[in-house]
C-alpha cells in the first residue's frame, strides 16, 4: 500500500544525504517535498501541516550528535514523527475483562466489516484461545446473517441463531443469556451496514452501544477510499465511543492516506489491517514497522538511536 510514498521518501532522502550541512533553506526544501509527498498520498491537510511543523521544530532545536550527519538526524526525526501520527505504540486488542467480553464492529456497507468480524474471531480463538460467539445485528439485509453464518462455519465458531423479526436490542439481550449458557468468552457483534452516514442507523448504533457496553468498539474502514474513509471515521467518532479502527484492503493499491490520517481523526489507534480476503489475512498494526516500511531507513534510525544513547552516557559520566 505504501509503495508510492516509500519511493518519494527515498528520493527526498537521497538528495538530502547529498547536502553536506543542512541550513534552514535545505531543510525548507526537504519539508516542501515531504509535504507534497504526503498530500499526494492523500493525507489530510491539517495532518500534513502538523507533521511538517513538528519535524521542523524538532530539527531546528536538536543538537547534532557527533558521528551523525545532519541528514541522518532529519531522517530519524521524520521517522519518529511518522510513528507518532501512525499511533506511537501498537495497541493490541484489549482482551482483558470479565467474560463475556464484547466487541462491537461498525462501518459502512462494503467496507469489509463482516469478513473482519470473522477474521478477528479467528484471531481470538487462535492467539488467545477464546471461546467466541458471533452475533449478527443486521436485520435490514436478510443475507447479512447468512454471510456471517458461512464465515462462522469456516472458523468453526458458534453463531447466535436467528429468530425472525427480533429487534437488534432484543438480540443483544438474548446474546448475553446464550453466552452464559455456552460459556462464551468473547461476543463479536456485526452491525447493520450503511451505504452512507444515515441518522436513523447511527442512532440505532448508539443505542446498541449503550446496551452492549463493549470492551472494544471498532470501526472498519476501507483503506482504498482514502479521504472518504477519513470523513467516515470523523462522523462515526462523533456518534460512538470508538476504541480503535481496522483498515481493510491494505493489499490493494491505496496511497496510504487513510492509515496516516486515522489516529489523528479518531483519536484512537489502528488495531489491525486486513491484507486479503482470506480469514488469516489480518495483521496487527505496528506503527513502528509501518514507518519503517514507508521510510526504509531502519539502519539509520538505529544508528542515530545508538549515537544519542552514547551521548547520554557521556553526559552522565561527565
Ligand atoms: P461488509 O459489507 O462491510 O460487511 O463487507 P464484507 O465483509 O461483505 O466484504 C466486502 C468484500 O470485501 C468481500 O468480497 C470481502 O472478501 C472483501 N474484503 C474484506 N476485507 C478485505 C481485505 O482486507 N482485502 C481484500 N482484498 N478484500 C477484502
Can you characterise this structure?
There is one protein chain. With 318 residues, the chain is α/β, with parallel strands linked by helices. 55% of the residues lie in helices and 12% in strands. It has twelve helices and eight strands. It has helices at residues 3-18, 24-40, 45-61, 70-86, 113-128, 142-154, 168-181, 199-212, 227-239, 257-266, 287-295, 298-317; strands at residues 101-107, 132-136, 158-159, 186-190, 216-222, 244-248, 270-274, 282-284. An eight-stranded mixed sheet has the order 3-2-4-1-5-6-7-8, with helices on both faces. The longest helix has 20 residues, at 298-317. It is elongated. Bound molecules: guanosine-5'-diphosphate (GDP).
Helicity level, as a percent range?
Answer: 55-70%
Strand order of the largest sheet: 3-2-4-1-5-6-7-8
Oligomer: single chain
The molecules bound to the chains, other than polymers, are:
guanosine-5'-diphosphate
